Amino acid sequence: MSNKKIFILLPDGVGLRNFAFTDFYNKCKQATEMDLIFWNNTPFDLSKMGYEEIKLQQKKSNFFLEVLKNARNEIELNCNIRKSKDAVYDSYRFPFSYKTLKSVVKRTVTCFVIQLFNSEKGLEKVRTLIRKTGRKTDFYKECSELLKLEKPAFVFCTNQRISLAIAPLLAAQDLKIPTATFIFSWDNLPKGTMVVETDYYFVWSSHMKQELLYYYPYIKVNQIVITGSPQFENHFNVDNIIPKEIFFKQNGLDVTKKYICYSGDDVTTSPYDSDYLLDLINALRILNKKGFQLGIIFRRCPVDFSDRFNLILASNKDIVSNIDPKWHKVGEGWNTILPTSEDSILQLNIVAHTQLVVNLGSSMVFDYAAQKKPCAYINYNPKRHNGNWSVEKIYNFIHFRSMPNDAVVWLNSPEDIAYKIENMLGDEINEVVAGAQEWFRKINQHPADQASQRIWDGIAEICKK
């Protein structure tokens, strides 16, 4: 190819963890002669890390593009229900906001668009409207002028669900620059979150490839590249594991204890997370009376800034140590809370220095599987839960249907926890670890430490065409 520039489009902070805070950049330099440039719409200054970047200045999406994006999402879920005859897709809908006049207007217009185009053919028209609207924006014109100047060989988008990525990708396509997007999470495709349309789609696994073909039949097999996700590569960088004595001292941990990680969820996924943490605390007190010396490392969900754990943490300092994720909050939305490179190392060490993880349906199961350690999933409703949420609803999500029966230990009641944790600390847990690793291999292409390399191989192959 005549130009070796590769643009990595960061429409928001989600892609930082996978592409800026892993070995992705270094592997590019090692594997290719390409020049990587981050097309950066995040507040994070990547130049401080020695990366070349071009800043995007667009912070808000076009109003009508947002309307069309939301309408597309709802119509896709409706089509999925009709196609599969499965009502689970209703559970992926988020309630609309009515807090401001603008939000009321947006909701009203969105409902009108849904009513007008609520079919497979209507969905095609909405997709066409998204492209036409994107091309009419000033942002599209700005991106087009920049691309004409820079002439990259390829534009790779790190997130398929952000409307701010529509204009840059359309501008590239109109200039005959090949484009691709990365499906950034294991549960994204059933949710109807595809916003951008690119020439190629990079996915985690063969399983995700089949999902992509099912939900988006206009995508062809030769447009899909299976790579795995770079987010797990840090677990294989053993040079970043801090010696136990140092890590424990840094975080005020007791070297005589064995620790269990309680990995928190966001408020929407698990509104009663504090109840579950308290149940785990009570179970460990039972085990410690039997002679165990156990403690809990509490790692909250990085986008959860609620105060719901404060009282429990303050009242149980003898058994729970709080280690906050090293993320940086720059706004109110979940996608304005940015990861840091330090947090990847922190997470690696929490996994390395704990025996197992307890949570409600989190992908942390794969982080622990990468280090050959078990996970326990909470599987009961707390006493004070209401009818709007249930644990059954969580585990009915599509992405859990890929799960082998023995991939986790199921905690089916508060009374289950103590004796099942005791069993998990023994050798018989090896079968569960093997099940988790089998699930990990299905969800994420292996070897898991070579995802960045596969992404670069895919980009290089496309650029040769």
UniProtKB/TrEMBL annotation:
<protein>
    <recommendedName>
        <fullName>UDP-N-acetylglucosamine:LPS N-acetylglucosamine transferase</fullName>
    </recommendedName>
</protein>
